[in-house]
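Retro notes
What went well: the complex prediction finally ran end to end.
Inputs used:
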Amino acid sequence: MVDGVFTTPGEVAQRLADVRYLADTATATTVYLAATLEKPLLIEGPAGVGKTQLAKAVAEATGAELIRLQCYEGLDEARALYEWNYKKQLLRIQAASPDAAWEQTHDDIFTDEFLLTRPLLTAIRRSEPTVLLIDEADKTDVEVEALLLEVLSDFQVTIPELGTLTAVRRPFVVVTSNATRELSEALKRRCLYLHLDYPTPEREREIVLAQVPELAPVLAEQLVRTAATLRTLELKKAPSVAESIDWARTLLALGIGDLDEAAIAQTLGVVLKHNSDHVRAAAELGLPAR
Amino acid sequence: MTLLDRHVEFLAALREAGLPVSVAEGIDAAASVPVIDLLDREQLRAAFAATLVKRPHHRPAFDTIFDVYFPPVTGRSAAPPSDTEPPPRDPDAAHRGPLEDPLRDRVRADLFRALLEGDDALLDGVAREAVGAFGEVRSGTPGRSSWSRMTVLQRVAPETLMAGLLDAFLAGQERGGLAERRARTLLADRIDRFTRRVDVDVRRRLAEVTDAESVARTARRPTIDQVNFLSATRTDLVALRREIQPLARRLAARLAIDQRRGSRGALDFRRTIRESLSSGGVPLQTYHRPKRPLKSDLVVLCDVSDSVSSFAQFTLLLVYALREVFTKVRAFAFVDELDEVTRFFTPGGDPLDAVTRLATEADVAGLMGRTDYGRAFELFAERFADAIGSRTSLLVLGDARSNYGDVALPTLRELAGRAKHAYWLNPERRASWDTGDSRARDLSAIVPMVECRNLAQLGEFVRDLTHAH
């Protein structure tokens, strides 16, 4: 369990900064509350603003293990929670001596040995500090959401053959969503909510410098201002923080010292991934034609 | 008043503003109060936001109400007096007489500094100072005054500082280039931050002279998906356009899931048998081939006259953002001439650009320059009759106001009859249909008419439309 590890939101910010994740007051306070009130944390926001990264940073900062459940369409209980190892059970039945009592065999094959634990159950049964990341929860079907609801509200799982398993130590749960569909009201109600958005240029500069310390501060300033300018254009896909960082690395690798029109035109592909966005950006920023 | 009372009133104000705050969430919020540092207002804001606001589009309303119920300061003069002197006046400058205003000069000098540094605490202080100095509007009754953001912004005029700020920022660099563009974005953002702080402080002072509840009520604004297309302001329009892509993405994701789930295709025999081997030859589960999605053509016929052009633009933007859902999309625009505008929407092109070009280049305005549905339908039937086949959905966009002209009902009936589906989207509220020159009733008897005043309704319609196939 991560609770009790943090004593103030300020400490959260400090310890996240130690692992190079710069959190603002809102993020730090929300993480602190999630840990203290033992509630799951639901994070929404555009792609590439550091939602998944936040979960990883919390795990790293608290020395907890990260268990990740990547959601996708068609994810089911057997992939998310647990599954009986049918083949091994079959083997066990075949290997049993012919005169073994059925009750005995029955009790034997529904034990831990034949249980395949999936991320949700694994996270609940761990006694060491754990961060459970449920990534892109909006991609799942509504049924899985109901399953999550059950697990996240009581931190217990009922397996008919084994009984109810209750969390030994509550994991710190982070649920992320890109909002391709709205998550159910019930799930939202049980979670603390954090909307991560593009940072202010001042903060983004610090983020870029924290991730790419070798970058010259002047260049970082130019970079975040350009990124902010690009975000004001009506693009199909605005540059994300992750892309800003990639951009910084690119500039460093190419040895570009001044982010002028020519340099932007040369490296724009790192931040903009649609042709129509390129055309628009080139026109608006007055970039030289390629 | 105790903190608990304040908390309960705050929850009530949020609910009044349309945020669905449950009792459980209210308790969560209360539970978070003892564990945070109450003296740090931003922590309190974050704690309340995390527990009470679960949708991003409710956030502006939340912030407004939070600022009114939990003001950063109370009373009149909250900011410490500035220690900067007004800049010394040029001794050669002519005396400016009554226009001279040392207070205004001082506030502007402070603002200049704050904007240059981009420091939020400084901006806070200047905003409070500015509202305190210029925001008060005295009324007839003594002792009762009101506060206005307009007077503050007029006197301080933050936009007029831009030129000076740019000079200071670029420090002798060449103007007009990329550097200026970048600096401008940054400064515009900071000025915006300042204006928002002025709003907050004005509301706080208003809440002190009246009461928090009524101020919270006036501050309520419709969320962006509820903004009416026809009465949207310029800022709203930009915000609306930004919402189109995410909305299209959400719809497309939803549709893909629905299509796959709706019906299963033929049995995948090989896979079923192969999988059954692992359970001793017993096919525990059957597998099916994915069904080929049935797509249809879409023909959009839109009125682009001034009164409804913004509505037509949004619908076209959304339709083209979703074009992969249809086999083919053709768009026609009309006022009292008709022109096919499909050519502007090139694949991979910029749809926004297309809409702009449509407005300037399409040949849609004839002699009268007023919407003529009758003529538009006749022209369409004459020139593009082959556009409508048995697998076509016909979509007409317009307010059904024919300027008292003929609407060619038989022609429309024939067109609608040939299409698989036909719909009419009307951006006017249902209550004003059939008033004045609106022919909504006659037209809706032929083509089912749907009210479509905001993004929420538009999204809902597009979802139903693709479902109908």
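What we learned: Chain A touches chain B through 55 residues (CB under 8 Å).
What to try next: split runs per interface for comparison.
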